[in-house]
Amino acid sequence: MKLKLYSFLFFSLVVSYTSLSHLTSNLDVLIKFETQKAPPISAQRCDPDIAPFYIYELPDRFNKALLSNCTKLDPWLNKCPYIENQGLGQLLYKKSSWYNTRSSWYNTYQFSADMIFHARAVNHPCRTYNLSSALMFYIPFYPSLYAPSFFLEYNFTRRDAMAVDLVNYISSFPNFQRHGGHDHFLVSGIMVQDLIRTSDRIDGKAFRSNNLLNLPKLSNVSILIIERKQLRKYKNHFGIPYPSYFHPRSKAEMISWQNEVRRSKRPHLFSFVGGTRPKRHKAEMYRSTVINQCKRSKKCLLVFCKYWVSAWDAADEILGAMKRARFCLQPPGDTATRRSVFDSILAGCIPVFFTDLMAYSQYEWYIPENREDWSVFIRPEHLYRIEDVLSRIPEEEVQRMREVVIGMIPQVTYVHPGATRAEIGFRDAVDTALVELTKRVRHIKHGTDAGSSLAPSL
Ligand SMILES: *[C@@H]1O[C@H](CO)[C@@H](O)[C@H](O)[C@H]1NC(C)=O
Ligand SMILES: *[C@@H]1O[C@H](CO)[C@@H](O)[C@H](O)[C@H]1NC(C)=O
Ligand SMILES: *[C@@H]1O[C@H](CO)[C@@H](O)[C@H](O)[C@H]1NC(C)=O
Ligand SMILES: *[C@@H]1O[C@H](CO)[C@@H](O)[C@H](O)[C@H]1NC(C)=O
Predict the structure, then answer these.
(1) I want to staple 271 with a disulfide (CB 3.0 to 4.6 A). Which of 102, 301, 315, 327 is the partner?
(2) Hey, which bits of 9-104 come out as E strands?
(3) Ligand 1 binding site (Cβ under 6 Å of any ligand atom)
(4) Protein residue closest via CA to atom 6 of ligand 1
(5) CB neighbours (10 Å) of residue 130?
């Protein structure tokens, strides 16, 4: 029955597209249609593990209007180049061999997951326009643009105004109240500490932060965020990957990239891409130790980035170095997490961690259960013997781990928002999040709390 309906739809679409193209010579439509010879409609069907979701049409002030003021979005950075292409940033031109002809490489800013998620969700086959058939509700706000634009606002009432406005707006809907917000979600491209203020003092910790994620009305809403805090209070927060540079439009492109990093010659045992931190910065101890050991070792490749100089413009150099090393050191930086972790996965370079907070306690939805399957953890007592620890790992073990890392690339990648499900054929970062959110809402709908941290009955 369903099949018949789909083939009917398919047929009528062919007819209407064909007649349309005669009338308007709309080459674009025709070309796009012809490249999708496989059954396009059924392939565009929603993944059965993802529940239908509804995207709220928010007033422009919560997303689109922010974009129009891009020079003022951040006190230290002109964000305009980074909001281009729906948050992917500017295209990276074919500077070196791996930027393939389909131009799926962008100079993506590390704090733009919320914009990219939104662009993907809008075209997602599981999106429904029917409020009453949706099981999940997406609030497409852009905390990564809102938070920095108020970093230097010293009046807290004014700094928080947009957060309060948003939460009052959303929570007034009967739809929100029905399940206390448990079936709603919001995505943040910026770290949790910029969205929870821990002190009322204008100096110290109050610097920068607004109070969005401390507002009680959001306490049941699932918050997908690039860096979370591991506190009971924030058990509704879930880690999602930082976006990296690769946004493929097809499975073929993904496989070809995976093959490329698999074949890549890796003459260096390990590499470090990053910089030092000022004295008294809490990450300085790790940074200087790592850099000194790398400088002294013949087996280490160092790509040194000066503090406060934008390293994310150097995709070529960063990924190039990571492709030539077997292990990539990931010491803490300005905050507990680093975008670099996802760059190193993309380059097939096994990450080396020094703290639990860098990945293990952040990205549960995305990483293998056993940390030793895909990464190396340097215990504090081994901090000064990095080369020693890494060179003791047998070659076949290194290869096995690298295969796991390469296998993780699809699920930590944000595919191009314009790609169709038929072309993609794998679950990316957005799909993976939607699958996990679906498990949670299905718990709610069945009124069970089997092992989940949700309220028992709703
Ligand atoms: C853009 O910035 C100006 C100056 O800061 C401000 O007055 C205006 O309201 C902003 N516009 C939007 C749409 O946020
Ligand atoms: C919306 O979904 C509800 C529940 O699934 C259904 O009863 C209704 O017919 C749908 N409305 C439209 C316009 O499709
Ligand atoms: C902070 O801003 C609010 C709203 O604009 C204003 O009512 C209040 O007086 C300001 N507080 C201070 C201390 O300036
Ligand atoms: C959050 O959920 C709990 C029950 O799980 C409910 O009592 C509470 O009112 C909800 N909070 C909001 C803001 O709706």
Answers:
(1) 301
(2) 53-55
(3) 65, 68-69, 72
(4) 69
(5) 8
